[in-house]
Amino acid sequence: MSEICKLKIKNFGPIKNGYSNSSTNDFFDISRCSVIIGEQGTGKSTVAKLASTLLWLEKDFIQKEQDYSLFTKNDFFTLCKNQKIENYFSDKTYICFKDSIFTFEYKDKEFSIMKNDEFSNYEGKKIMYMPSERNLISVIDDADEISGLPYSISSTVEEFLKASKLLGNDLKKLPLNGFNYLYDKSTNTGFIQDNKDNTKVKLSSASSGLQSFVPLFIVTDYLSNNVTKDFFEKLKRFSIKDRNRAENLIRFNLSQQDKSKIDETITSFRRACDTGLTKDLSDSDVKMLMEQLKSIMNISFFNIVEEPEQNLFPASQIETIKYLVICLNANKKNSLLITTHSPFVLSALNNFILAAKISSKEIPESLYIFSDDFSAYLIQDGNIIDIFDKSYSLIDTTVIDDCATLLNTQYDSIYNQETNK
């Protein structure tokens, strides 16, 4: 199982009993690719927000060299406030996060931290939370100038504008039939172009589906395809302190190798810091630097998406999940966590998992999801239920399919009434 972390949640907001499995001590996995389903208000976003908060906390301790021994429960409450989940605590709340580096535990109204491994073994990841309210970014002019926005929205605004501005005057083809996105930097305005007649409208005037989809697509596309570029651009901005820390880390990591290897790697590092470019480095040098500095720099992208299907026609929902999986597979260290209500999203994921299992030629390898990298959960009545059948490599979609069965049964009953008149 390729897992990002393990979580145990009890009595936190809508989550009551949480996950129940004696063999795992009630811990459930957040895998490289995870999906959470459930009715509205059951706690899908609660789990996603809590996971993102704890992963971000771990990253902050390591990459910013924060003294975790000084971190308090009030600091934890403040982090939860960023995700609007600070009021979910009760006297009975229990939360535990585990991965290879840290264990975080909230118990009996106290927050504790245990270090499990050396920081040098951590792999930095860009953690992006795409909220369901992302359509507001498309609708509101100058969203970046509005104060008081929830952190998940303000960070999405920041990344969306950064990615949009980098497009320059280029059209960005959308994986939805017949549309492009373009951005006018002079007016800070996004537009949707219809390829059928070359007309264009402001993103703020486009359909609700496009308003939800475009921020998701542009940010995901940018972050999944620019990990290496961002890595080296950040090196160029390194302070003297940052450079010294990085060089010490390289020496520590390569201490068992010969001195020439250490000197060679540090020379490549200094060259990269001076230029911020990879053109003067070999592919092996690039890989070496990213491997040696993975604990203090981002080498992958963890995409957390609420309702990717939002406001989209079924065929467009499938194109959306396809693109998210393509971006997941753009880097073997990338991760994806989605919350969804859509049977089409679940069916598409089942197809991708089966295709990987049998090496199907009908579906491209860029869409393969291996069952060892996957987990799926239903949240219902305060419980977190594993719905991924590992023996068949299949998501159990019964809870969603039951709705269609009920409607079909009702239709048959009404039809029979009509025909029996």
Sum up the structure in keywords.
alpha/beta, 12 helices, 5-stranded antiparallel β-sheet, 41% helix
Number of helical segments with 4 or more residues: 12
Dominant shape: globular
**Oligomeric composition of the shown chains:** single chain
| Rg, alpha carbons | 23 Å
The average pLDDT is 92
Q: What spatial order of strands do you see in the largest sheet?
A: 2-16-15-4-14-13-8
Which percent band covers the strand fraction?
15-25%
Number of strands: 18
How would you describe this protein?
- Helix 4 (151-166) crosses helix 5 (208-225).
- It is globular, with a radius of gyration of 23 Å.
- The model has no long low-confidence stretch (mean pLDDT 92).
- The strands form four sheets. It has a seven-stranded mixed beta sheet, sandwiched between helices. Strands 3-1-5-6-7 form a five-stranded antiparallel beta sheet, with helices on one face.
- Strand 11 (189-194) and strand 12 form a beta hairpin.
- It is built from twelve helices and 18 strands.
- It is 41% helix and 22% strand.
- It has 421 residues and is an alpha/beta fold.
- Among the domains are: 3-123 and 333-405; 227-296, no CATH class.
- The protein has helices at residues 44-63, 73-82, 135-139, 151-166, 208-225, 227-236, 240-253, 259-275, 283-292, 314-328, 343-358, 398-419, and strands spanning 3-10, 18-19, 28-31, 33-37, 94-98, 102-107, 110-115, 124-130, 172-173, 179-184, 189-194, 199-202, 298-306, 335-340, 374-380, 383-386, 388-389, 394-395.
- The longest helix is centred in the C-terminal third of the chain and has 22 residues, at 398-419.
